[in-house]
Amino acid sequence: MAVAASHTPFLVLDERDVIVEVGPPAQAQFEHLLGCCVWESFPGSRELFRPHYERARRTGQPVEFVQFFAGHVARVRAVPAAGGRLELSWESIAVLDVLTLEGLRSSLDAALAILERRCRRNSLRVLEGSR
Amino acid sequence: MLDADDRVVGVRGGLEERLGCFLARSFWEASPAAEELFRPHFEEARRTQREVEFTAYYAGTLARRRVVPSGETLTVYVTPLLELDVRTLTTLAESLQRIEAALAAPAPARPAPPARASLQAPP
After folding, report:
1. Mutant choice from B31, B92, B95, B99 vs A, greatest count of A C-beta within 10 A
2. For B41-93, how does the pLDDT look when each residue is reduced to its tens digit (9 = 90+)?
3. Nearest neighbour of B59 by CB, restricted to A69, A71, A99
4. Do B87 and A108 touch (CB under 8 A)?
5. How many helices (H) and strands (E) does chain A have?
6. Does this complex have an ipTM over 0.85?
7. Which of A23, A115, A116, B88 could form a disulfide with A10 if both were Cys (CB 3.0 to 4.6 A apart)?
8. pLDDT per position as a tens digit, B18-36
9. Count of CB atoms within 10 A of residue B6's CB?
10. What is the pTM of this model?
11. Which residues in chain B are contacts of A99 at CB distance < 8 A?
C-alpha cells in the first residue's frame, strides 16, 4: 500500500478504529499496538481525532488537520479507503520542550501560535467558501 | 550520588532503570539544561556541608530534592511531587497550573534543629 512517501509515518485503521497496519517509519512507536483500538491505546485522543476521521469516512474525502497531542503539534492526513478503513499519515510540526519551565513556556507559545494560525486559515477558508 | 566532579557514581532507590545509564557520566552532560537549576544548590551543600532541600521542575516532573554532602561527595534524594501531562492541551494546562501553584506556594517550614545547649538542658 502507498499512502504516503516512504519516509512519512503512517498507519491504517479498520472500520472499528483498530490499528491493522503500521508503516516502517512508525513501527518503533506503533508496531506493538497492532490489533489494538487506537482510542484505548492513546487515552484522551478520541475527542480530538475522531471527528476528523468520521468526516473523512462520511464524505469519502481526505481530511487534513493540525492537532496537539502527546507533546507534539502534528499535521495529520486521514484518507478513507475501502471497507471503512482509514489511512493515516502525519508530520510533526512542533515538539514541546519539557526540560525546563522556561523551555516549556516558550515552546508552548510557539505551538499555540501554529495552532492559532491554522485555525485562522481554516476560518478564512470557511468564510471564502460561504461567499 | 555525585563525586567531586559531579560525575554520577551511584544510583539507588529504584532509580537504577531510569538513571543507571548515567553512571560514570557527568551529571550535567546527562541532564541537559539542569545545571543552572541545580548547581547553585549543589554548591551550597558542598560549601556549607549542610543538607540543602529545594523543589524544582525538570524534565516533566516537579520534584523535591534533598542534597546531602559528605565532603565533596553529594547524595541527592529525589521525591517526585507532580507530573506534567502533555497528552492534550487541557491536561497540559491543568498540570502546568498545578506545578506553577506548587512552586509559588511558600515552602513548608522545616523545624529548626535543636540548639546544642537545649540538648544539655535539664528537663
Report:
1. B92
2. 999 999 999 999 999 999 999 999 999 999 999 999 999 999 999 999 999 99
3. A99
4. no
5. 4, 5
6. no
7. A23
8. 778 889 999 999 899 999 9
9. 20
10. 0.80
11. 32-34, 58-59
